[in-house]
Structure formats: structure tokens, C-alpha cells
């Protein structure tokens, strides 16, 4: 056992490797977040509840398969996050204008956004009802 406060070459290499892993993970997280918020108005980016877990709102990357039941569960949790979001209305207007292809925006999937925008009768839930 080594005395407290002393380091070996192995410890230094381990710390450097850990630091590199943390930096790489942070870079990946920032890239994912950047893809979610690309084109969004700044106040949405800074105040949106989805900024804490962009994976929740976008799903797995394009190379991963997501089972339907897992997607439904993830989207339900995303809807719940959206329902409490302080910029929910602004996000809805942005999503209706931008028409995203994937993800959960203001509590709605792209198909639900299209139905909501198209006003397909009274059976179409409002975004808050969907959440």
C-alpha cells in the first residue's frame, strides 16, 4: 500500500485515460445536444427542459434499433418532461414551423405535429393533452 498523497506512473496514465474518456463523452453529448437544438431560438435552447436529456427526446442514434415498446415508453417520459417545460408554447410554435422529422417536440411526435397542424378534427389531442 502506498502512502496517501503519492502517485505512481500508473495513476497518472489512468487519470489521463479517464480524463480523455470524460472529454470524449462530453464532446459526444454536446454533439447530440447541438443536433437537437440546431436552428432553435436561443431562449428555447437556454430554458428548455429537454436540454438536460436530449437522448430522451431524440431516441437512439440512427444505427441503433429501438423496439416499439421502448420507444413508446421513452416518448411518454419525454411528453411528461415537455408538459412541465417553461418554454413549451414557444417550442410548439417552433416545431409547427420547422416540422422536425424525428423526436418529441412540445410533447408531440412529428406525425402528431402534422395532424395537429392539419387540424384533423376534434379527435386530435392538444399538445398538453398528449403529454
Notes on the protein architecture:
- There is one protein chain.
- The chain has 131 residues and is mostly helical.
- The protein has one domain.
- Helix content is 61%, strand content 0%.
- It is globular.
- One of its GO terms (biological process) is cell redox homeostasis.
- GO terms for molecular function: 4 iron, 4 sulfur cluster binding; DNA binding; metal ion binding; protein-disulfide reductase [NAD(P)H] activity.
- InterPro entries: 4FE4S_WBL, Whib.
Give short descriptive properties of this protein.
61% helix; iron; 7 helices; DNA binding; mainly alpha; 131 residues; iron-sulfur
What's this model, at a glance?
The protein is mainly α and 131 residues long. Helix content is 61%, strand content 0%.
N→C terminal distance: 55 Å
Number of helices: 7
Number of domains: 1
Beta-strand share of residues: under 5%
The oligomeric state is: single chain
What structural category characterises the helix and strand content? mainly alpha
Number of strands: 0
The main pleated sheet reads as: none
Domain 4Fe-4S Wbl-type: 49-115
Protein name: 4Fe-4S Wbl-type domain-containing protein
Pfam family, one: Whib
Main location: cytoplasm
Write the topology of this structure.
Blueprint: H1 9-37, H2 42-47, H3 54-58, H4 68-83, H5 88-98, H6 110-118, H7 127-130
Amino acid at each position: 500500500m502506498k502512502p496517501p498523497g503519492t502517485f505512481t506512473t500508473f495513476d497518472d496514465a489512468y487519470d489521463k485515460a479517464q480524463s480523455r474518456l470524460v472529454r470524449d463523452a462530453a464532446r459526444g453529448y454536446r454533439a447530440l445536444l447541438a443536433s437537437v437544438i440546431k436552428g432553435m431560438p436561443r431562449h428555447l435552447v437556454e430554458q428548455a427542459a429537454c436540454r438536460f436529456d436530449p437522448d430522451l427526446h431524440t431516441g437512439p442514434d440512427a444505427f441503433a434499433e429501438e423496439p416499439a415498446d421502448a420507444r413508446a415508453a421513452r416518448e411518454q417520459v419525454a411528453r411528461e418532461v415537455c408538459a412541465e417545460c417553461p418554454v413549451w408554447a414557444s417550442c410548439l410554435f417552433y416545431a409547427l414551423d420547422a416540422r422536425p422529422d424525428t423526436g418529441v417536440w412540445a410533447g408531440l411526435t412529428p406525425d402528431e405535429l402534422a395532424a395537429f397542424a392539419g387540424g384533423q378534427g376534434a379527435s386530435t389531442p392538444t399538445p398538453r393533452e398528449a403529454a
